[in-house]
beta-galactosidase (Ruminococcus bicirculans), 905 residues
Amino acid sequence: MINKLDLSGEWLLCLDKECKGTDLVFDDTINLPNTTSNAKKGEYNTERETGFLTDTYKFEGFAWFRKNVDFSALQCENLKLYLERTRITELYIDGKKIGRQESLCTPHIYDLNEYIGTGIHEMTICVSNVGYKTKGGHLTSPDTQTNWNGITGRIELIGYKNAHAENVMLWCDIHNKTVRVTANITGGKSGKAVISAESFNSEKNHTPAVQSFEYKDGKLDALYKMGDDCLLWSEHEPNLYKLRIDIYGDVSEHIIGMREFRTEGGKFTINGEKTFLRGKHDGMIFPKTAFAPTDLEEWLRIMKISKSYGMNHYRYHTCCPPESAFIAADMLGIYMEPQLPFWGTITEEGEENHNQEEQDFLVEEGFNMLKFFGNHPSYCMMSMGNELWGSKKILNDIIGGYKKFDSRHLYTQGSNNFQWFPNVIENDDFFVGVRLANDRLIRGSYAMCDAPLGHIQTDKPAANHDYDSIIRPKKQASSTEISEDGTVQIQYGTTMKTVKASDADADFIPEVPIVTHEIGQYETYPNFKEIEKYTGSLKARNFEVFRERLDEKGLLPLAEDYFKCSGKLAVQCYKEEMEAVFRSRLLGGFQILDIQDFSGQGTALVGVLDAFMDSKGLITDSEWREFCNDAVVMARFDSYVLEAVSSFKAHTELCNYRPDLKDGKLICTLTLENGDVIGKVKKNFVAEGNYTDICDVEFTLPQVTKNTKAVLALEIEGTDIHNHYDLWVIPTVEKTDISGAYIFNEVNEEAESLLKQGKTVLIVPDLSKLENSIEGFYCQDFWCYHMFCIISQMMKKPDPVGTMGLLIDTDHPALAGFAGEKYSTPQWWEIVQNSRSVILDDFKGEKNVIVRTIDNFDRNHDLSLLYEYEKDGGKVVVCSCDFDKLSKSPEGRAFINSVVDYVRN
């Protein structure tokens, strides 16, 4: 490039909703880059979407942009129009069609040599957001970016000399300290290329020597020497260079990082050192504009937030970000995995629903991604799409083609492909999935339609889970049942489908790194204060509808408590999920869904950050890094709930991918909430590889008179590596004492008589006969109730329970003997799991809910586990728990005694 002309600014606009392309009237203007929606062009949309944010100026069709351009403004010998980020485009000059381009992921570039120096011409660009050759995944989905129309990146004429470098590929060799530079030299058969490089973001400045190379037959193939002291790129030291190729004054500039991203056994390596992928899902949700930014500053902002939460990896769900995202990741040391914009089935010719045009488009899109972005050191991995089905042969061929073209990256067939029938194909460099067979689960939570459920949903909270015995099992696992016709029902996107299936390989053990897919997905109740943040064309009308529904049930005053208490439970679930991953020594990494709210697919508020990447106030980045970082110190123990005067035992260990941490001293302390130190252990250790068993600890718990919080704190002395666990010590209760209390299964005649005497009666219903109730489920709801309830019903599987934890009146005297937090904590697990929550929507009269179950924001039932009301001069207390089962645990006995003491008094 020798110069360029910026074409951003005001353009004439014509919206052609009918896609006629005739009788165009340019009676409006728009400032580009922009989208028609963000510029508030077109008809105002009055719809109120509940499954995703509402695009208030939604437009689908042809958008025509027109501008007079002076082609004499650039002195050049080769001229191109560059449209950085757009949809399907057609370019016209003075009404003459120049061409059409369809890439959703990469720039549209048009040759305009015939117009060099010819003065002012009328340029018209038609942008279409209909008629795509593929559905586009999250690139075009209303759940994420919306199906916007416009041009959102650079719009410019670029002038070149006749001889200039195109299709530049840079191959960094950290062993020989060289960069192989290949390029097509357009407009020049033979000549000289001068290559130089300079580090620009490191404290250790390094400038290799300027070197000259000959190119022949329009091809440059040069081996540029970086020098023995060249700087390497990684997540810990993201050292970068600007490499320049000068062809007789026409200079192209490229960012490079000297790195080698490979695999070794079941691990990823960066420059020969093992690393662990701490990944974040990204569907490019930007609720202020509804499209991904193309400016570097915004990507740096959001990626710095992700880094502050311990992330070193981005997985782009069925989409590819603009170049500024790769540059930001280059600068911050983030390992990127873009995906083809595809979520569907790959078929072979002759198979049902075969769409060769779509598959050809997707393959070409992948090559475009590699050509335009492949030089960036952050571009480490590439995936063929999300939850794909179909032909393994075609998938393998596609990956093979990419590998032959560009071997600088690692490739995978997709994320969670073939679901219950996972496999590794020949060209897979790593595996991404949620299970290795039907009951070999490698994440902690699942939707009911994908059951069996995960350990966090079914097991009592504990700090002892890992996936190593599942990855390499000692016995054969079971397989999903297949219908007689050889088919199986699967969740398919936001619906379901029936697919052909081969027998599941219950002995499937990948020999490539395993990345556990979309872990987490614990939702929180909406924060209605967030509504005011939607100042752009996207509006949170879904939040408005949810607020109205809650108000109709008379529960709106509880909204803030619902948000905070559901969020606190979600954080507990995330901590347990993340630590299970960091304990798993055979895993290569994880991809969480997500630290950020997902605005669509039923409105899935699964983040500890909102959709704007702002904190929800549920956990700080420092607290999150306790269990998600390049080094995590952990304890293994069987229960967070302990009985007084018992022995608490834990095993301490370190997951360490921090290069400079070779040894240290562990300090382990157990402290009561009043500050009393129960015990402290100090232990020196040598970090043995990436996983170190430090020591076992044992503490004798004191007697307590009430439920008492204790904190187990771990720290590596002199570092920022620390962690903590909130434990609950329960007083010793040998047996329950229900003497003197009036306890019934229902309000019968005897109970009625006692009430008329002003007595308090306790109703403990027979749960097997309790109608109008919901089963007890301690774990946070998965993703969002609405979407997965519909899918479960389509698949004729059980509905999800759909509850979101407890809201507890901790000051109520019924809980005087069962102290705790306002929200769910592990001491409530036995109680919740052995209960049913009564639906009080139609309750007549006044009531006081003592322990409330938070329902999801789609259903909004008024749910209670423990409530009371006045009747006939007395008081009725209803506790919908199974006392027989609760009497078998210390916390259950303590809870029963507390409730009985209240009704007895």
Notes: The CA atoms of residues 159 and 644 lie 78 Å apart.
